[in-house]
Amino acid sequence: MKCDKVTLIPNTQSIHGLHCQRVPTTTRVYANGEFIIPHPNDGKLIDQVDEAEHFTMYTALDAETMDVVWQCIVDGNLDNTATDYTGRFAGATCYNSEMAFDLAGQMRNERDWVVVFDLHKIEEDVKAGKFITLPGSDVPVVDGRKKDGKNSPYTRYVPVPKNPHGIHASPDGKYWVANGKLSPTVSVIELAKLPDLFADKLSDERDVIVAEPELGLGPLHTTFDGRGNAYSSLFIDSQVVKWNVDAAIRHYKGEKVNYILQKSDVDYQPGHLQASLGETRDADGKWLVVLSKFSKDRFLPVGPLRAENDQLFDISGEEMVLVHDGPAFAEPHDINIIRRDQINTKRVWDRNDPFFASAVARAEQDGVNLETDNKVIRDGNKVRVYMTSVAPSYGLSEFEVNEGDEVTVTVTNLDHIEDLSHGFCLVNHGINMEISPQQTSSVTFTASKPGVHYYFCTWFCHALHMEMAGRMKVRAKNA
């Protein structure tokens, strides 16, 4: 994978959980703003807490452009988020309903909440121009706070115990499971009840909760096997618990039924976990990976920084069976498991790929054919260097610039052989980029150091890979 774009999210500090829209197509990505901050955050009301509004944001981004589409103001610190299977609702856990700034203050309430968002209503009002903007940003903002006991048209706040963390959707599209963290329970929310929640047809927000099974200490995340069973990580107990959702619902209604099917020790303190295709309609119930935060005595100690422990379970039978431990550096944090046949990646770059369209456009402006030309374009103190690469050589064995020039080097890999990548590492300038077959890569830097600086290939590409090098000559200003 490659990073396609980095987007700065305005009006927030720290994005924690995020989730793609599930259906009908992924046109949105939803992201939690974690920390409440003063607005405006211009330093004038640092000490006057009561005189500044404090809140965070739930943010929607366009999945293709990664542009911010809208934001929704909420109370509390948002943690994790999930969407439903209709495209209308999203939910986000909140662990600081107290709106506190200290650790003890953030744990006062016995219940915090899951914020439920009516995505259709937000999109509708933003399209109609019913929004505000905040200073320094033109992003549409709607207010999802509950004020004076009155609900916003965009949100509902469902009380759940306590400092909830993960929220996950079951493969049948019926439920969200919110994990209590500081409660031994998880809360099962029936998604079919959400339209009535927003229509104010329920007597209480907690009427959408259909089960609250007690699983153990420190439930953080839940995944599913597609057979009606859920698997939750218990951080304090260092366990994974397998439980049946339908049995938990029946127990909540008063039926005496055992919903816990199995508990398995893990080593140690598990956080995220995921079953194969566990949060899709295709959950197959074959494998479970548990990411344990600590390994302690599982691996050879090689210093204070220890490997963490990723553990693989076979869950295809009646019981979970641990089949593998694997060290990991450092806190990979989350995981997804998909089938091998679902991975159909390109083996060689397409020359028309939009990923490097900006470099192609720049070359066209300079009248350069990236597949044939090796040349240097000078425009005052801006220098654009174009070269090809074919194992084991670059199209230019050297080029010259002046001290202080802004230099853009663009390299096009003309090799067609699958996985024959080249690198471009420029000594003394902190530059090392990769150029895969048929790809164009570019980097811009300032030639601030007079002298001769070698560039060379950093992906083994040929028996003469070591000889694949060139020189950048930087002429001193006073030379």
Structure write-up:
By secondary structure, the protein is mainly β. The chain is built from 4 helices and 32 strands. Strands 1, 2, 3, 4, 5 and 9 form a 6-stranded mixed sheet that branches. Strands 23, 24, 25, 27 and 30 form a 5-stranded mixed sheet that branches. A 5-stranded mixed sheet has the order 26-32-31-28-29, with no helix packed on it.
Question: How would you concisely characterize the structure shown here?
Answer:
This protein is mainly beta.
Q: How many angstroms does the end-to-end distance come to?
A: 44 Å
Average predicted local confidence, pLDDT: 93
- Please report the number of helical segments: 4
Proportion in β-strands: 35-45%
Cα gyration radius (Å): 27 Å
- The backbone outline, from C-alpha atoms, is globular
- Category from helices, strands and their pairing: mainly beta
Q: Which spans of ≥5 residues are poorly predicted at pLDDT below 50?
A: none
Q: Give a short account of the largest sheet.
A: 6 strands, mixed
Number of strands: 32
Q: Share of helix among residues? A: under 10%
